[in-house]
Design brief:
Helix content is 48%, strand content 21%. It is of the alpha+beta class and 193 residues long. The longest helix has 51 residues.
């Protein structure tokens, strides 16, 4: 009699219970996979944004180093306290600068050669934009410098725009706004050279 009692008390799992457990585990694993993809995308996005911030700070440093050009010297700027407006568009690693008194697009070498302020700005912008084009292809950079009348102080705004490949965490986030507007990013930095 003792043998039959142990058999009745030691029942196993039914097939339905095993299938329900497998479905719950699969749903959990799919959620973890989605979080992993979102985490990987966010890491790439934050890396790119940090590189853009470093590049803008690098250009700000070159502006501080070449105050004769960026500081509102009337020989390079529009006469009578005008503004300096530069727009650079990267196309396959080559940036074309346009705007009021933009430095030329093919700079000479300023390495071991004495350059004036405009040549140095041209050289710095060329090398800066070449590196930015490798980090951030198909980007647009706008540099706007304004000279405050009477004070002689210059304020420059560096604006870098680019498109990001982003992953939405859920359907609601994906539906907010147009996808192109969701991926267009802008970084602004105000500098006083």
């Amino acid at each position: 009699m003792t043998r039959s009692n142990t058999r009745n008390g030691a029942r196993g799992f039914s097939l339905v219970e095993v299938m329900v457990a497998l479905i719950i585990i699969c749903v959990g694993l799919l959620g973890i996979a989605k979080l992993e993809a979102l985490m990987l995308s966010s890491t790439g996005t934050s890396r790119l944004r940090a590189l853009v911030a470093l590049q803008a700070a690098s250009l700000a440093d070159t502006m501080h180093a070449d105050r004769d050009y960026w500081g509102g010297n009337s020989a390079y700027w529009v006469p009578s306290g005008g503004d300096l407006l530069l727009s650079g568009t990267d196309s396959g690693g080559t940036t074309t600068w346009t705007g009021t008194n933009a430095p030329g697009s093919s700079p000479g070498s300023c390495y071991n050669v004495v350059c004036n302020s405009e040549q140095l700005a041209q050289y710095d912008l060329s090398h800066w934009s070449t590196y930015l084009g490798t980090v951030l292809p198909n980007s647009t950079t706008n540099i706007t410098c304004s000279l405050t009348a009477g004070t002689g102080l210059v304020s420059c705004t560096i604006q870098i725009q680019w498109n990001e490949n982003t992953v939405a965490a859920n359907q609601q986030e994906a539906n907010v706004g147009a996808p192109a507007a969701f991926q267009q990013q802008t970084y602004d930095l105000v500098v006083q050279p």
